UniProtKB/TrEMBL annotation:
Gene3D superfamilies: 2.30.30.30. Keywords: Ribonucleoprotein, Ribosomal protein, RNA-binding, rRNA-binding. One of the proteins that surrounds the polypeptide exit tunnel on the outside of the subunit. One of two assembly initiator proteins, it binds directly to the 5'-end of the 23S rRNA, where it nucleates assembly of the 50S subunit. HAMAP family: Ribosomal_uL24_B (MF_01326_B). PROSITE patterns: RIBOSOMAL_L24. This is Large ribosomal subunit protein uL24. The keyword Transcription regulation does not apply.
Length: 106
């Protein structure tokens, strides 16, 4: 199995859609479905009827999953979107930003 290029905790930039250009931190990754949840991005609203658990009812707002292909990792140097490649440093496989050559994790 190949290593994931985007992981939980990464800072990403949205490439397309209503939130294009926004940045956020990845809170959940679902590689099986090819979806990702980013904090503060792709906010969806659900109108809830009053129930016994929630007598007030109202509108629930939450971060909806979005396709992984719509985001790119933010470059550690300037925060712009970049692709990710893998390199071996000191016998360890690390993720590297293609634009700047900076190491993304440790």
């Amino acid at each position: 199995m190949a290593s994931a290029k985007i992981k939980k905790g990464d800072t990403v930039v949205v490439l397309s859609g209503k939130d294009k250009g926004k940045t956020g931190t990845v809170s959940k990754v679902n590689p099986k479905d090819g979806k990702i949840v980013v904090e503060g991005v792709n906010i969806a609203a659900r109108h809830r009827k009053p129930t016994q658990q929630n007598p007030q009812g109202g509108i629930d707002r939450f971060e909806a999953p979005m396709p992984i292909s719509k985001v790119a990792v933010a470059d550690p140097k300037d925060g712009k979107p970049t692709r990710v490649r893998f390199e071996e440093k000191d016998g360890k496989k690390v993720r590297v930003a293609v634009k700047s050559g900076e190491t993304i994790d440790g």
